[in-house]
Design brief:
Layout (H helix, E strand, L loop, with lengths): L1 E4 L5 H15 L4 H9 L4 H11 L2 E6 L2 E9 L2 E7 L8 H11 L6 E2 L6 H8 L14
Parallel strand pairs: 4-5
Antiparallel strand pairs: 1-2, 2-3, 3-4
Length: 136
């Protein structure tokens, strides 16, 4: 496995991020999280900005992208690994790379009820400190 900062936006990376976006949107709180991350930009514009700022990290196995992490403004906004590649330490390697990069994330997002992601973050010593409540 190889973790690297994305230097260009490829169809493979874009496809994986779009797949992750579709997956997140179906979870409780997913749509709100996507609005927080995307703002008024579409996914490809967000990715182009992330590539140009050095905030998009990709994991490759045998030259195939199997995961990514998105860091922006001191926040780890997303960590995603393809289903068939999970439980192999890829998300941990992505986070370690983000931490050791030029600016350590101060915060990270996780969906409500996403115990796997919360446990992963807690394994780095991070603590939950904010819960956002919304009407409706």
């Amino acid at each position: 496995m190889k973790i690297e900062v994305a230097t260009e936006l490829t169809d493979e990376i874009s496809g994986l991020v779009h797949s992750a976006t579709r997956s997140v949107s179906s979870h409780r709180g997913g749509e709100a999280l996507l609005v927080t991350i995307h703002g008024d930009r579409d996914t490809d514009e967000l990715l182009r900005d992330a590539v140009s700022s050095g905030g998009l990290f990709v994991a490759r196995e045998h030259h195939t992208v199997v995961g990514f992490a998105l860091r922006r403004d001191g926040v780890l906004e997303a960590v995603y690994v393809k289903k068939h590649s999970r439980r192999q330490g890829i998300a941990r390697a992505l986070i370690n790379t983000v931490i050791s990069s030029s600016s350590e994330p101060l915060d990270a997002y996780a969906l409500p009820g996403d115990r796997a992601t919360k446990s992963l973050y807690e394994s780095f010593g991070w603590k939950a400190r904010l819960l956002t409540m919304r009407a409706g």
